[in-house]
Amino acid sequence: MASTQRRGRVRAAWAVAGCAATFAATAFARRREREPFPGERLLKGASAAGGLALAALTAVPPARHRTRGAAELAARGAAAGLVQGGSHLLFDALAVALRRTAGTADPDAAEVDPGRVAARCLALGSAALTLVAARWQAREGAGTCPRCGGRPRPAAPGALAWSGYVACALSLPYPVVKLAWECGSDIGITRPEVIHAVPGGWLPVVPALAGSLLSLALVRPWGRTFPRWVPAVGGSRVPRPLVLVPSCFGLAVLAEVAPAALVAGVRYVNDPATPPVEEIGLRPWVPLTFYASWVLWGVALAGAAWEYHRTTAGCPACARS
């Protein structure tokens, strides 16, 4: 019991320190740029809320279950906000890659501020620390396992096991069409000279295909156990964070981009004041198909990630499921 409490407090201290570092790095980046940047308010608010929620979990006695439950929920919500704010790292990486691929002569094109990148990296790390600390602190008390910090509980009802396959299928329209364009195809294109002239058009395909592979890893056996042909780790259990952390990151990216893109795409197509989509080089179905598939991909990916979490959360010390 005392060992569990001590471990929980140590993890909470690290998580609070991470939240404080995220808040400070965000404020520093804001001062350097002198103007708001995407996710700035979310990073500040989530880091402050996460630190306060963890402090409450540490201070409130274990007997006050409702208060601790509310604090745990607040900590998990703060962690989700930190992941959401840090997910813009993907677009920072794409901007740098596109800048180098295009070889633009403008030194200010697609500029990425290092302070902003540092704040987003700290946000992702703080999110992981916050989730771990909340789990240990909220389950503090009698009957907890000294290894995992949890209490035995019955298995939760399963999500649809095929959600990962659906997520993989929904992730494919964008990379398949983009790769077809890179290979010279004119599918969905009205102005080939415009679309084919875009430099680095293949770069967004890489994270999209990585997301397709991740969607399958959530439901395939090799997402739980390394294949035996893998050197050194073949046949051993895949660490859950290796699959769940990228899944949460992907969900944050899709939640940030997909709904807004779909709404903007529908408004653009239906707005008589804007030029037709054909004038920018695309058939109307192309952006709408991309954005709609992203929204549905996010829903299916969330189901697959929950199913993976539910079926891999066992603890060998207490047989917790």
TrEMBL record:
The chain crosses the membrane at residues 12-30, 201-222, 242-265, 285-306. Keywords: Membrane, Transmembrane, Transmembrane helix. This is Uncharacterized protein. It comes from Streptomyces antimycoticus.
